[in-house]
Specification:
Layout: H1 8-13, H2 16-23, H3 30-38, H4 45-58, H5 61-68, H6 82-91, H7 104-115, H8 119-141
Helix pairs in contact: 2-3, 4-8, 6-7
């Protein structure tokens, strides 16, 4: 199967509108997309990922909410559960976790733990998990 990832050089050279479209599948936040496009060129996909982490950490909460409005942000292991509904009602965003290497049981246990966190701690956790999810998406998209 051929590598369908986009060369980082092609991303660097793409017109801004095309570059924004290339980033959209990784994260639905227009603010995140604009900052990354303005930050080009990147020497490597790893540099793109590291810059992404920093941008996601600095995003305003409304930008994070916008990123999580994407249906792809939901976690299948807990989607629709009573706990996931309670989480979204409490924090205003769907529960997000990087599922890499985690079992469904571990994800459900983490959801229960995170429901007990205060708002500010959970917002930091959400940003960290969003950064991890986006980093994986970028690694799958760019070479």
């Amino acid at each position: 199967m051929p590598d369908e990832r986009i060369a980082i050089s092609a991303f660097n050279e793409a017109p801004p509108d095309e570059a924004l479209a290339l980033l959209a599948p990784a994260c639905a936040s227009p603010s995140w997309q604009r900052v990354l496009v303005a930050s080009r060129p990147f020497r490597s996909p790893a540099e793109l990922g590291a810059t992404s982490d920093g941008v996601l950490t600095a995003l305003g909460w409304s930008d994070v909410q916008q990123a999580l409005a994407d249906p792809a942000a939901t976690v299948a292991a807990v989607a629709g559960t009573e706990e996931a509904v309670a989480y979204e009602a409490r924090f205003g965003v769907p529960f997000l976790i990087d599922p890499t290497g985690r079992t469904a049981e571990e994800i459900r246990a983490t959801l229960a733990q995170r429901l007990a966190q205060d708002d500010e701690t959970e917002r930091r956790t959400v940003r960290r998990e969003l950064a991890a999810v986006v980093r994986v998406r970028l690694a799958k998209s760019f070479a």
